[in-house]
Each structure stands twice: as C-alpha cells, then as structure tokens.
Amino acid sequence: MAILKIAKLGHPVLIKKTNEINDLNKVDLKKIVFDMSQTMLDSNGIGLAAPQIHLSHRMFIYRNPDVEEEDKINISVFINPSVETISDETVDDWEGCLSIPGMSGLVRRHKRIKYSAIDLNGKNITGEVEGLHARVIQHEFDHLNGILYTSRLAHKNAFGYSEEIEKFWKKHHEKNS
Asked: Which end of the chain is more exposed for a tag (fewer CB within 10 A), N or C?
C-alpha cells in the first residue's frame, strides 16, 4: 500500500491534458488503482484523477455514490473516458477537491450525463447518471482535460475556505432556495 502525494493547485500537472492509455498491459494499472484508492480514502475524497497523483494517464477513480453501503465502499475505475451531456439542464452545488484542500466552490454542472470508458479489465462500460454521480464524474473528467472546478464557478465570489462557506454561503443559499 502506498499513499501518494497529491498535486496541489499551482502545480503544472493539473492544467495539462492527459494521454490516452493505448496498451493496458504497458502500465501497472492494478497497482496504480490500488494506490490511488488508498490515497483517496486516506484523504476522505470521493474521486481522484491520475493528474492529481502526478501521472498523465487518462484515467480516474471514484466512490460510486449510487451503490455505497455503510460498511462497503464501491470504487469505479474509468480509463480513457468520454462524457456527453444528455440535456442543457444544469445544477449548482458545492464542490471541493483534494488538489485544493480546505476550499469549496459553488459549481455549475450538467444534471444528467452519458459516459463511456474502459474498466480495469479492459471491458467497455457505459451508462447514464444524474445528481451527485454525474457531478463526480464530470469533476474527475475535467481533471483529465486540465480543468479545475474553480473555472466552473456559478458565481465568481462563490469560492472560499470550506469552513467559511459552511458558516455563511450555505446558510444564505438555503434561505434563498
């Protein structure tokens, strides 16, 4: 088991587009996924993309919110993913990122998406998701394209320390909803 170093905001690896993995056997994907999983769980994350651990591979992992159980965590692996929006409908919600620790931003994401990817065994996977599941996939997919959530803020001032966001923004946002 290895807890990997997470790239932080300002590191150039986070703003570069990643490279497709053309040969699944050339890279020790099982070790990478195991180490990424340990790193994500150790950091209390819900997702982690390869650039966040200083790799330019086009892959990410995430905790699948649709199948989480109290004592069982389901981690999905997406290799060479693609994401399409199903409709123009968007939802604003608060996000954080392991590469921007202690900070939160109100981010606009598409409500429903379609995805396709390859899993760890080389099988094609596809699906349609919405809500938190769609938000997590879009967030991690953005990492593969060198995009951080701070560039998708719903309002330019809706970004700050998570502690302050909890005290002020979220209470105000809930009152006005």
From this structure: C
